[in-house]
Specification:
By secondary structure, this protein is α/β, with parallel strands linked by helices. About 35% of the residues lie in helices and about 20% in strands. It has two domains: about 110 residues, Roll (Urease, subunit C, domain 1); about 300 residues, TIM Barrel (Alpha-Beta Barrel).
């Protein structure tokens, strides 16, 4: 059994139960697991980490990988959520399996370069033969730990929904394919590289019946549930008008609360909904950059954390964020809470905890998100000897003064990023493919 050693890091931010920070220590990896932490350890191979900060791999709890093909679309650059969606739906309707595969590779590589070792993905439209299988294949090549969710839309414009009729599916077919992808791909074992969730897109694009049936199916299969909730004022107004209640109450009535559920955004949760999520251990994917870009508002993360709600970070889709950098997301999370609540509202270390341990808890992964003996060997190594950290008195405060790209990323003990480069795919070739596809989509539009 081969062993690896991460040796001599300037600082190790463990995010373990004691939140230990170690200096000059080594991390021994055996069979994809952290076997020991200390000094004077030996291994078959050594990764030198002098001048570096080591953190757990970052965790992304909400993404739409297919959207890396539609960054900075002119007509959508200044729109609010509903108008933004209506602009982009016709473009996304032109996608096929290759678009899904290539856009996922680009998005996953971008995440990995920002130190992300595990990500979810919310794919809720399947035009022209596209399937969840396409993004799963992309993740296998990149080497990142993957939690794809089988999303869906079933209420088109003709039935009072937001998406065009061409992008919605029959609800029976949705549930059948959910069963197929869970039975085919979901791996519940500790250390799993692939877990599948069930994720109707949002309360304004699926029926009450599908929300309820999806929850029943997920619990029968033992998988997690995910959707968008309380994203902006339009979202709240829709819920009040259509359902006669706020989003949190709607979610509770349909079985969408509990430790096996996490909701994206939650910008407009009120205190009663926050208390509900705390009591039921329901998770939240906080997407600060996307929320800013779409003018949705600032999520009450400080109030959520103080109430005991599980909170992780999400980059959201690149059509609303324009980037997929989880370090930038963590920094923005910290800054926005300070804007609302003052400079002491959130520390750099707490924001990093949300981006690592917090995200792992939201995704139900107690085996990840920490540097501790027995946890999976998902590690991000940050070179703090460069200009970004020059003059820093606290190299461990990497969200205040540190690099936005990782030097090395190790997932399940294996290299995904080495010396700042993705090693699993030919990234320049994939980027060229993506740019060609984007130009073709612009011509079609």
């Amino acid at each position: 059994m081969k062993t690896r050693l991460i040796r001599g890091a300037a600082a190790i931010l463990t995010m373990d139960d004691a939140r230990r920070e170690l200096s000059g220590a080594d991390i021994l990896i055996r069979d994809g697991v952290i076997a020991a932490i200390g000094t004077g350890l030996r291994a078959d191979t050594v990764v030198e980490a002098a001048g570096c900060v080591v953190t757990p791999g970052l965790v992304n709890t909400h993404h739409h990988l297919y959207q890396t093909l539609t960054r900075a679309v002119p007509a959508a650059q200044d729109a609010l959520l509903f108008g933004w969606l209506k602009t982009l739906y016709p473009i996304w309707a032109q996608f096929g399996p290759e678009h899904m595969f290539v856009s996922a590779q680009v998005g996953l590589a971008e995440l990995a370069l920002s130190g992300c070792s595990m990500t979810s993905d919310h794919l809720y439209l399947y035009p022209n033969g596209a399937r969840l299988d396409d993004t799963i294949a992309a993740a296998a090549e990149v080497g990142i730990r993957f939690h794809p969710t089988r999303g869906a839309m079933s209420i088109g414009e003709s039935a009072g929904g937001l998406p065009p009729d061409s992008l919605v599916e029959r609800e029976a077919a949705i549930l059948d394919d959910c069963i197929r992808v869970v039975d085919t791909f979901h791996d519940p074992r500790p250390g799993s590289m692939l877990r599948v969730g069930i994720a109707p897109c949002s309360p304004f694009s699926v029926s009450r019946e599908l929300m309820r049936d999806a929850a029943l199916l997920a619990r029968d299969k033992g998988v997690m549930l995910h959707t968008h909730l309380a994203e902006n004022d339009e979202d709240i107004a829709y819920s009040l008008a259509q359902f006669g209640c706020r989003p949190g109450q709607y979610a509770e009535e349909l079985g969408w609360t509990g430790p096996d559920v996490w909701h994206a955004h939650c910008v407009k949760l009120d205190q009663q909904e926050i208390d509900l999520f705390s009591r039921t251990r329901t998770g939240v994917a906080h997407c600060p950059c996307s929320n800013c870009r779409l003018g949705s508002g600032i999520a009450p993360v400080r109030a959520m954390r103080d109430a005991g709600v599980r909170v992780g970070l999400g980059v959201d889709g690149s059509a609303s964020n324009d980037a997929g950098n989880l370090v930038a997301e963590a920094r923005m999370s910290m800054l926005l809470q300070r804007v609302v609540r003052g400079a002491d509202a959130m520390s750099a270390r707490e924001a990093l905890e949300i981006a690592t341990r917090g995200g792992a808890q939201v995704l139900g992964r107690d085996d990840c998100g920490q540097i501790a003996v027995g946890k999976r060997a998902d590690l991000a190594i940050w070179d703090v000897s460069g200009i970004e950290s020059a003059g820093s008195w606290d190299p461990a405060a990497i969200l205040l003064a540190g690099p936005s790209r990782v030097r090395d990323l190790i997932v399940e003990g294996l290299d995904v990023v080495r010396s700042g480069a993705i090693i699993g795919i030919d990234l320049p070739m994939v980027v060229r493919q993506q740019n060609i596809m984007a130009l073709q989509l612009a011509d079609i539009r």
